[in-house]
């Protein structure tokens, strides 16, 4: 019933109980998970998970925080691996001006190269955007990202930024922060996003929703994001679960 569009189940935080975490996701109604591999270390383990579980798919790419470490050989490696039948998109890619662990010009160049690769491969892209809204939108426009579209992952921007992304063929995804009581802007934006462009996610093990805020996040908690989204749109939980699942399947071309 639930489609979790962004997880990091191969993270070290799950090394002790990964199978149990995945089992709990199923128990909570999650029937499809897209797991993200975002650098040289996490891409192989991401693909391994996709190979081991029929309901887990992979997205692979290069995170902006690691941009300084990416080489042309890495990009060729990603292109080769992206032909794996369970790789459904590229990412997460984008800009991160909060941590600034890679120079901003390097982040931008790595971002552009991955958009060009996605257009070549005709795969949607997953966007990481931290405190870089204007530059992210500009690069998406300049690199014609609308040709492949994708997801604005764990969206934290304004309605004006969301509209620009929507106009470029992107879906808007919300995670645990949507459930926080003080999340005024995310709630306002989520309520305005058209139903056919909404997605839900956890970004686990990070960004845990209420009522587990402060603890490790896991994919089963996407149900709390779905509950909040349903409330914001005046729909039932079941209706919102179906809408967001159908949207994700359409985007990732997994329609049954």
TrEMBL record:
Q: Which UniProt keywords apply?
A: Hydrolase, Metal-binding
| Residues that hold a divalent metal cation 2 according to the record | 128, 153
Against PROSITE patterns, the record matches this protein to: TATD_3
GO cellular component terms, alphabetically, are: cytosol
| SUPFAM superfamilies in UniProt | Metallo-dependent hydrolases
Q: Which GO terms describe its molecular function?
A: DNA nuclease activity; hydrolase activity, acting on ester bonds; metal ion binding
Please tell me where a divalent metal cation 1 binds in this chain.
6, 8, 92, 203
Tell me which InterPro entries the record gives.
DNase_TatD-rel_CS (IPR018228), Metal_Hydrolase (IPR032466), TatD-like (IPR001130), TatD/YcfH-like (IPR015991)
Please report the name of this protein according to its UniProt entry: TatD family deoxyribonuclease
Q: Which organism is it from?
A: Brevibacillus panacihumi
| Phylogenetic placement of the source organism | Bacteria, Bacillati, Bacillota, Bacilli, Bacillales
